[in-house]
Design goal:
Blueprint: H1 2-8, H2 11-18, H3 45-64, E1 70-72, H4 79-86, E2 93-98, H5 119-123, H6 129-132, E3 146-151, H7 156-164, E4 168-171, H8 172-178, H9 180-189, E5 196-202, H10 224-237, E6 240-246, H11 257-269
Parallel strand pairs: 1-6, 2-3, 2-5, 3-4, 5-6
Helix pairs in contact: 1-11, 3-4, 8-9, 9-10, 10-11
Length: 275
């Protein structure tokens, strides 16, 4: 229901006002929840892989046509398809992963087995073969080409894996200490040499008071202005080739606030500014 809520909040109208030409490619076919195994977790693997293959095909077609694909979710597992599409040209692709969580678990490290906690690990070559080898065998992005921003909730083994990796991690503690402006500029500078950057925006990166309609809220996230400044800095500093915005659950929302905020942040990421 997340994509429908974002459309209802006026995504097309707002993008057109920014000067964008819009082509809505519709929804990727996703298995109905009631048709999936009750066990959840790893039992969802075939359905998640099939969905991400569909996401990849839609994204790769858009990129080949010279468009900037905007993917709407849904949980963060779709990034397995979005980033694979973003990196389909073979050029090095940077990833700005904005999230309360690391999404760097594997089936061996995850306490819950939730696949939406594993996509970034898989994209860097870690985890289940079905995820790591989606469409193309092996990693889709290099550790050093990934920046994680807004992190404040990691599982113990996930934390260890991230510490041992080459991924650049900026926690909310560091943002509190240094300020979002300094952190955002430093983070995107690490990717500014790359030909294209994919932005993966998980709405639970914001404080739940700002974005209540998410499935896994964590207190202490970005304020409204911090989130906008981050997206504005990204737009000013790197070539944004694709965006996904994920984890919107309208059942948990208040008057569609989270979808409306998601649109505003996407606009900032595409270059909208006050002056």
């Amino acid at each position: 229901m997340g994509p429908s809520a974002v459309r209802y909040a006026g995504l097309d109208r707002r993008l057109k006002r920014l000067g964008c030409e819009i082509r809505d490619c519709g929804n990727v076919e996703i298995a109905e929840r009631d048709t999936l195994p009750a066990a959840g977790g790893l039992a969802y693997m075939p359905a998640v892989v099939a969905a991400c293959e569909g996401v990849y095909r839609a994204g790769a077609r858009a990129i080949e046509a010279g468009d900037v694909p905007l993917f709407l979710g849904g949980d963060h597992s779709i990034a397995l398809g979005t980033v694979t599409a973003a990196s389909s040209s073979g050029e090095r692709t940077g990833v700005v992963w904005i999230d309360a969580h690391g999404d760097f678990n594997t089936p061996e490290t995850s306490p819950s087995g939730n696949l939406h906690g594993m996509p970034l690990a898989a994209l860097t070559g870690r985890g289940a073969d079905e995820m790591v080898n989606l469409i193309r065998v092996g990693r889709k992005v290099a550790d050093e080409d990934v920046v994680l921003i807004g992190i404040r909730d990691l599982d113990p083994a996930e934390r260890d894996t991230l510490r041992d990796s080459g991924v650049h991690v900026y926690t909310m503690r560091e943002i509190d200490r240094r300020g979002i402006g300094e952190v955002a500029e430093e983070a995107v500078a690490k990717l500014s040499h790359l030909p294209r950057v994919h932005v993966s925006l998980d709405m639970d990166s914001l404080d739940p008071r700002e974005a209540p309609g998410v499935g896994t809220p964590v207190a202490g996230g970005f304020s409204y202005r911090e989130a906008h400044l981050l997206m504005e800095t990204i737009a000013d500093s790197v070539t944004v080739g694709s965006i996904d915005v994920v984890e919107i659950n309208p059942i948990l929302d208040e008057r569609n606030r989270t979808s409306e905020l998601a649109i505003e942040l996407v606009l900032s990421g595409l270059g909208k500014s006050t002056f």
